[in-house]
Amino acid sequence: FAALINAYAANREYGSVPRLIQEMKESFVVPTLEVFTELLHCYARARDLRRAEETWNTMKACDLIPDLPAYNAMLMAYGTARQYPKVKQLWIEMQQKGVKGNAHTHKLLRSIFSRLGDRQQLWHLEEVLQVQRGRVNTLTELSQLRRAGLQADADTVGYLLASCIKERSCDKAHNVWSDMLSADMVPNVHIINTLIHLYISEGDTSRLQGLWADLQKPGL
Known about the structure:
The chain is mostly helical. It folds into two domains: about 1-95, no CATH class; about 110-220. Helix content is about 70%, strand content about 0%. It contains 13 helices and no strands. Mean pLDDT is about 80; it is low at about 135-140.
């Protein structure tokens, strides 16, 4: 049944799923965690938050403990429905229950927090990732991460800059850029282009000239 649900979702045949659920009930088949997870994925893809939440609540009522795939599916359901407060709430629940995210979790959360322009949550996510790697820290700046022997990658900087664009804040973007240079990080083309487009769109010629001057330095 789980495989069939997955197949229907992959082919976007969402209307066939309720009939399959009814067949399960008539056959007295007790849904497993895998079945519930596939249902969550299906409803997330269909952007059907109501059914996703019903499935989530039913799963918990059956005394089934959500695992990482189930949490990822529910995060996707909330994300596609733009229920951002519920995304944060579920993310907190995962941390409280000791459920460690994977690359898919982090990519999803970074994307959501970036769209919100939520720099605080982006930094919190980075801190959690460092803790999961066995490097406990309470740092909030790129330069501090570097001094502590931690490495924020280009993706982290990119998402931070995206949040600055959301806020249309050249000052915050400049601070991220300055911190990155202070931390001896070499920017990639995407980061440079992001800053150029932001400064041009906001008419900040002073920052644009400063950026160009920085790019003439050795190593850049």
